TrEMBL record:
It comes from Paenibacillus nanensis. Keywords: Cell membrane, Membrane, Phosphoprotein, Transferase, Transmembrane, Transmembrane helix. Signal peptide: none annotated. This is HAMP domain-containing protein. The chain crosses the membrane at residues 12-36, 285-305. It is found in: Cell membrane. SMART domains: HAMP (SM00304). Residues 309-361 form the HAMP domain.
Length: 582
């Protein structure tokens, strides 16, 4: 995979193109989600309105039926034949009594057949001790019913009375004397089964259901007696509120519930509908919306990939080519097989590099070839030392099985070798060289954190812009570890400090090791001065030569005994007298 530069994802054209495409696509996706929710809400509202209308229509019809029953009820109470029968029963002979009862029974049967919701019509006549029922004929007086409906007559909270798990209507004929029982009571028993069947007309869908509730009591008629009892419990709780629309969840399913209350009847009728039924018409819309969202995301990915491959990556190649050219590398031509706009640019770029290379070869490169070759040769001698020690550290960490430190070590090692293998420049800013050396000490801390302390001072701001040869500090620190600190049995200390005067910049590296004798320090000083041969300590000698070659006499390495009892190495960089620059 092509590696992005550190700045590319923040400032690149590619990121802006992808961001622009997302800005265009995501509002469309959000609009689709909004339309789905809006459609769902409208469908829910339409079903609610239709359900409420059905409930209101049902209660209106039931109220008309009850009003008709009440009208017939009071007509029966005032019926002359019934009143005559009650008053003159004892004066009639048996034939007249039988004839009067038959007429009353016929009237009650006609009364019962006048409404589909009546199960039975009964008259409880106290003077003759008889109960006449359209369903059961003439029976002895039902004392229980007589007293029950007589007692409820004065305390009815609603027109419908609940008794014996059924709904009833009643009216009585009073004797006219205070404290006496009524002459007779007319009682109508509503047919619960027919009421249950009538509830089916409210159910708009096969999986919906409805309930008829007598408020203030536990009496309920369900269109589906086998339905979940938890629905009934929820409806009862909902009935205690003034809302007429609810959303309930039971057994992992959601239901829409609508309720309408009739104050005149004291009844509420409720209808419930599973939420998936409401969403069923929108399933196809949901499927297409999801497909659109996925397609849009795939389009974003395809657009991003094509933009990266055909625009962003070729552009990055060109940008990196210019960066290499700025750093002095003029031999890295860009290859591009496509004959597009970038192919034209790459061809012209490569031609420009070739012309620049020719110009440099003819003028500057010939003059610097010898000096550059010597510097490269001296610099290349330093790399194998640290490479060996790096593998030694990695081997030690691997033996201990410390995976986290291995990961940290390899990351830092990658940054380290990125610096030393960079071929763009022979000289770098002192701030970069110090950063690289500090990275090396961090690497060594992974190995010697318990035995060796490091005091690495901050580089003064006025020294940051000094350009120095690469790898002049780290090899000296490496030698301190390898020849002194690493061999100590006690705790060691490595100290790196910086100093700046008007004509000199000084970097001091010293350690607390006691493994070096004064005669060895003098031998090293002689090698640096060119008095003795230099078969050993080639790293220090090479650094000294590069500094002298770059900055002239007075610069280089200066060795002495450290206050810490180890070796003290001073890197002196001679500055120009006029501008204090290298």
């Amino acid at each position: 995979m092509f590696k992005f530069p550190a700045f590319s994802m923040r400032n690149s054209i590619f990121a802006r193109l992808v961001f622009t495409y997302l800005i265009v696509v995501f509002p469309i996706i959000l609009l689709g989600i909004y339309l789905y929710q809006w459609s769902y809400q409208n469908a829910s509202n339409d079903i609610t309105r239709a359900t409420v209308k059905q409930l209101e229509y049902y209660l209106d019809g039931l109220n008309r039926e009850v009003e008709w029953m009440e009208l017939q009820l009071f007509d029966t109470v005032e019926d002359s034949g019934l009143n005559k029968l009650s008053a003159t029963w004892s004066l009639m002979d048996s034939a007249e009594q039988r004839e009067s009862l038959n007429e009353l029974l016929h009237r009650l049967t006609s009364f019962q057949n006048s409404s589909p919701y009546m199960k039975d019509v009964s008259v409880h006549i106290r003077p003759i001790n008889k109960t006449v029922s359209a369903a059961n004929g003439v029976q002895p007086l039902d004392e229980v019913r007589f007293h029950t409906f007589n007692n409820q007559a004065g305390m009815k909270e609603s027109r419908l009375q609940l008794w014996n798990d059924g709904l009833h209507l009643s009216a009585s004929k009073q004797s006219g004397k205070k404290g006496e029982e009524p002459i007779f009571i007319v009682q109508i028993e509503l047919d619960a089964e027919k009421l249950r069947r009538s509830l089916h007309q409210i159910n708009l869908y096969p999986d919906s259901g409805s309930l008829l509730i007598l408020e203030g009591s536990s009496y309920t008629i369900r269109s589906h007696p086998e339905s979940d009892a938890s629905i009934l419990d929820f409806v009862r709780r909902a009935s205690a509120t003034n809302n007429n629309e609810f959303l309930m969840k039971m057994n992992g399913r959601s239901y829409h519930l609508n309720k309408v209350y009739s104050e005149s009847l004291g009844l509420s009728v409720a209808a419930y509908l599973p939420e998936e039924t409401v969403k069923r018409p929108l399933n196809r819309f949901y499927t297409w919306g999801l497909l659109f969202a996925l397609t849009s995301l795939l389009a974003v990915v395809a657009f991003s990939y094509s933009s990266y491959r055909f625009i962003h990556r070729p552009l990055l190649y060109l940008v990196q080519g210019f960066k290499r050219m700025e750093s002095g590398s003029l031999d890295a031509a860009i290859e591009h097989e496509r004959k597009d706009e970038f192919g034209y640019l790459y061809t012209r770029y490569n031609q420009m590099l070739a012309r620049l290379q020719n110009l440099i070869d003819q003028d500057f490169k010939q003059k610097m070839m010898m000096q550059r070759a010597e510097l490269k040769q001296l610099q290349s001698q330093i790399n194998p030392h640290f490479l060996y020690n790096s593998f030694f550290i990695l081997n030690s960490l691997a033996k201990t099985g410390d995976v986290e430190r291995i990961e940290l070590f390899t990351n830092m090692l990658g940054e380290y070798f990125r610096f030393i293998t960079r071929n763009g420049e022979d000289h770098v800013l002192l701030s970069e060289e110090v950063k690289h050396s500090r990275m090396y000490t961090e690497i060594q801390k992974l190995r010697f954190s318990r035995r060796i302390r490091v005091q690495f001072d901050e580089l003064p701001a006025e020294m940051e812009r000094i350009r120095v040869p690469r790898l002049i500090i780290q090899p000296i620190i490496e030698n301190a570890y390898e020849h002194s600190l690493e061999k100590m049995a006690e705790e060691g200390l490595l100290r790196v400090t910086f100093e700046r005067s008007e004509s000199m910049a000084c970097i001091t590296i010293e350690d607390s090791g006691d493994g070096i004798e004064d005669c060895e320090i003098r031998a090293l000083q002689e090698r640096l001065a060119g008095i003795a041969k230099s078969e050993e300590s080639t790293g220090i000698l090479n650094i000294h030569r590069r500094l002298v070659l770059t900055f002239g006499e007075g610069s280089g390495l200066f060795l002495s005994r450290s206050e810490l009892n180890g070796l003290k190495v001073e890197i002196r960089i001679k500055l120009e007298e006029e501008m204090n620059h290298v």
